[in-house]
Structure formats: structure tokens, C-alpha cells
Design goal:
InterPro entries: FAD-bd, FAD-dep_Monooxygenase_BioMet, FAD/NAD-bd_sf
Order of helices and strands: EHEEHEEHEHEEEEEEEEEHHEEEHHHHH
Strand content: 25-35%
Protein name: Salicylate hydroxylase
CATH superfamily: FAD/NAD(P)-binding domain
GO molecular function: FAD binding; monooxygenase activity
Bound molecules: flavin-adenine dinucleotide
CATH topology: FAD/NAD(P)-binding domain
Number of helices: 11
Shape: globular
Cofactor: FAD
Structural class: alpha/beta
Oligomer: single chain
CATH architecture: 3-Layer(bba) Sandwich
Number of domains: 1
Pfam family, one: FAD_binding_3
Length: 396
């Protein structure tokens, strides 16, 4: 049977995971990335068991363990007095229950771990996609230097502003009204945050802060949201103003003030998502990751879902061969859409829940059984095995 050829746009977490999973399956895949130099910037990313189990199977268990932190818990606290509202146990308890760890990782570490799985001659830098065309026989990437690349399948892993997605739906990113300041602080400047490695959140009126250690505990990554009607930048390198951030969090718990006070630089990022769609492919074109289902980061699952997408798509394609492409893409959509749509919506709902002003609804949130049921309420999310779902659907 002739080999299927896959061309991927974007070498972020989604694109590299797909390239790694296709390489493992012996499928020819080339990744075309707009930037000239591959270096994931930004700060930390939480990788939950639903994704770490897939990364382990791709061969990254030891490499991740060497750079990641395994937080003992996720703690949610009140914005003013720091009172503990809710604690989700992680650490060994989570690892035992789900058979894979919860990790907090620097993005650059995750990115270079994924890159190590892809043969260097399969990643093409300085290759900006400007358009996609397709016929019954092939799909084609049109790059900004005027060259084109033909493939049996084009996969858009080109993020929230995906060019590939335009083949499937005509929609636009929608601004959430929220911006997020992100930063990395050397651990020695915030020793009070390192007694036990945890993901810590402080929830308050209209905004929240999250922080956790990364880089084997050498740095603390944080994100602090601030509402803004008029900010539209989406770039890890868009500079934020630490003084402005401190002002926005005046009156919050002293640990929040100390954390922000320890930051020397911050980036500021406007948070967008898109409406869920009911297709992830059209003809010889498919999308994965943020190109498929960009979500607000309030459930820390965007990258996790990108990894799940990539592994599932690779399994479906490995079964297909060139003549079964259409069926493979239908199967990929069937497996992925219900889950990613649910998580996308939940992430948006969390924006409201996290930011309730003090009052009845906030008190109900803080005392609800739902929020206090430990790992049980994460079973559907962390316990899910995307690869198994794909292989089971093969038998079905
Ligand atoms: C503040 C914040 C915190 C987050 N925290 C978490 C978390 O803790 N856990 C989690 O799971 N998720 C988190 N996320 C979400 C996560 O960052 C994204 O879901 C994830 O990065 C998506 O990966 P991706 O590869 O699909 O897209 P991207 O990371 O956007 O990568 C897209 C790639 O495609 C390239 N590209 C774009 N356009 C083109 C083009 N035209 N031609 C060629 N290449 C192109 C880009 O340069 C880039 O390399 C967070 C997001 C934000 C904003």
C-alpha cells in the first residue's frame, strides 16, 4: 500500500506531538513552522495525567521527570485572607489512581522534549503558511516564499489564528475581556511558595492568580488575570507593566503581593477562544490543538487536548492508508469532538466561577460539594486514555 504523506503547519505542542506520533507509526510527515528559530517562550504549562500517559508512551517519561515538578496538590484560596477553599490532591495519590503523573513544566522543556522525537530533516523553519488548496488527489500548502508543498493530508496545528482552519469554517477568535500577565520568578525570591510544590490559585472578584514551580523547582511560573475592554495583543513577548499588575492586585493576600513583587518582567496576553465547531476536517485538511478548539486557559487543558488530538489522529491515520483517509478523519472527529467541546465550554464557564464577586453565588461556590470531591470529579478528565479510545474505536 502506498505511504500516506502528511504536511503539518505549525511546530507547537500539537504539531510536534503529531509528528512524533506519526514518526512512531512509520508515517511520512513534514512540519512547516513560520518562525526561524524554534524556542517555545512563555512560562509554565500544567500537563495532567490524560496527557502525561501519552507522552510517556512516546518515550518521554525520563526526560519529563528530569525537568518537571510533580505538584502535591492544587489549592484554591480566597483572594483577601488566603483561606483555603478547596484542595485537589495530586502527587503520588493522583499518579497511583490514574497511572500517570501530574506535571508542571516549563514550556521550553516540553517543547524541546517533543522536538527530540522528530527527525531534524522533518521540521522546516521559516516556512510561513499563507494559504491551503486541495483537490480530490492532494492538498497543498502555499508558503510565504512562494513555494508549495503537496501532501495527501494537510494538518493545521497553527494555533488560534489558524490559516488551515479557514478551509473548514469561516469564524474569528473572540476576545474574552480578560488579559493575563505571565512571569517566571527565581525560586529563591519566593521561598514561601516552595515548602511543598503545589499549584496555587487565589480567586477573587473579576480576577485570579495561579502559580506553580517549574524547571525542577528552580523557577515559579505565574499567571494573573486582569479584565480589560481594550487590550488585544496575543504574544508571549508583549511586555506588561509589573507596577500596573501590582496595582490591579492591591488589597489581595500578602502572598499574592509578594509573588508579584518578586517579578522583574511580565508579559501580557489577551485571552481569546472560539466557538466550538462540529467538524475538524474538510476533504484532505484537518485541524488539531488550538487550531481546532482554542480555549481559555482556566482549566489548564489546551496543551493537554492538543496532545490527545495528535495521538488520536496518528492512530486513525496509521490504520487508514491513502484510500481510507476520509474514514480516518471521520473517526478522528467522532472521538475528539465531544470531549474537546465539553472542555472548551467548561474552560469558559470557569472564567465566571473563578471570578465571582463576594456574595451568595461566591459562598455557594466555596461550599459546594462539587468543588470538594477531590480527585473523583477529575476522573473523566485525568482518567481518560485518548490512545485507548482510538484503538477501541478501531475494533468497533
Ligand atoms: C496564559 C495561558 C496559560 C495556559 N496554560 C495551560 C496549561 O497549564 N495547560 C494546558 O494544557 N494548556 C495551557 N494553555 C493552552 C496552551 O498553551 C495551548 O492550548 C497550546 O499551546 C496549543 O498548542 P498548539 O500547538 O495547538 O498551538 P500553538 O502553541 O499556538 O502553536 C502553533 C504553532 O504554529 C505556528 N504557526 C502559526 N501560524 C503559522 C503559519 N501561518 N505558518 C506556519 N506556522 C504557523 C506558530 O509559530 C506555533 O509554533 C495556556 C494558554 C495560555 C494563553
Amino acid at each position: 500500500m502506498p505511504q500516506i504523506r502528511v504536511a503539518v503547519a505549525g511546530a507547537g505542542i500539537a504539531g510536534l506531538t503529531l509528528a512524533a506520533a506519526l514518526h512512531r507509526a512509520g508515517i511520512d510527515c513534514h512540519v512547516h513552522e513560520q518562525t526561524d528559530r524554534l524556542s517555545e517562550v512563555g512560562a509554565g504549562v500544567q500537563v495532567a495525567p490524560n496527557a502525561t500517559r501519552l507522552l510517556h508512551r512516546l518515550g518521554l517519561r525520563d526526560r519529563l521527570r528530569a525537568v518537571a515538578v510533580a505538584p502535591e496538590a492544587i489549592e484554591m484560596r480566597r483572594w483577601d485572607d488566603g483561606r483555603l477553599l478547596h484542595r485537589t490532591p495530586l502527587g503520588d495519590q493522583c499518579h497511583r489512581r490514574f497511572g500517570a503523573p501530574y506535571h508542571a513544566v516549563h514550556r521550553a522543556d516540553l517543547h524541546s522534549a517533543l522536538l527530540s522525537l522528530v527527525p531534524p530533516d522533518r521540521v522546516h523553519l521559516g516556512a510561513r503558511l499563507v494559504a491551503v488548496t486541495q483537490s480530490t488527489d492532494e492538498a497543498r500548502l502555499h508558503l510565504s516564499d512562494g513555494t508549495t508543498v503537496a501532501a495527501d493530508l494537510v494538518v493545521g496545528a497553527d494555533g488560534i489564528h489558524s490559516v488551515v482552519r479557514e478551509q473548514i469554517v469561516a469564524d474569528q477568535p473572540r476576545y474574552s475581556g480578560q488579559t493575563i500577565y505571565r512571569g517566571l520568578v527565581p525560586a529563591e525570591r519566593v521561598p514561601f511558595l516552595l515548602t511543598e510544590p503545589r499549584v496555587r490559585l487565589w480567586l477573587g472578584p473579576d480576577q485570579h492568580v495561579v502559580c506553580y514551580p517549574v524547571s525542577s523547582g528552580r523557577q515559579v511560573s505565574f499567571g494573573a488575570t486582569v479584565s480589560a475592554a481594550d487590550w488585544r495583543e496575543e504574544s508571549w513577548s508583549a511586555r506588561g507593566d509589573v507596577a500596573e499588575l501590582a496595582k490591579a492586585y492591591a488589597g489581595w493576600h500578602r502572598d499574592v503581593a509578594r509573588l508579584i513583587g518578586a517579578a522583574q518582567t511580565v508579559s501580557r496576553w489577551a485571552l481569546h477562544d472560539r466557538e466550538s465547531i462540529d467538524r475538524l476536517s474538510s476533504g484532505r485538511v484537518a485541524v488539531i490543538g488550538d487550531a481546532a478548539h482554542p480555549m481559555l486557559p482556566f482549566q489548564a487543558q489546551g496543551a493537554n487536548q492538543a496532545i490527545e488530538d495528535a495521538v488520536v489522529l496518528a492512530v486513525c491515520l496509521a490504520d487508514a492508508g491513502p484510500n481510507g483517509l476520509d474514514a480516518a478523519l471521520r473517526r478522528y472527529e467522532r472521538i475528539r469532538l465531544p470531549r474537546t467541546t465539553r472542555i472548551q465550554r467548561q474552560s469558559r464557564a470557569n472564567a465566571e466561577t473563578f471570578h465571582l464577586v463576594d456574595g451568595d453565588a461566591q459562598r455557594r461556590r466555596d461550599t459546594s460539594a462539587e468543588i470538594s470531591s477531590g480527585l473523583d470529579r477529575h476522573e473523566w478528565l485525568f482518567g481518560y486514555d485518548a490512545e485507548q479510545a482510538a484503538t477501541t474505536s478501531r475494533r468497533a
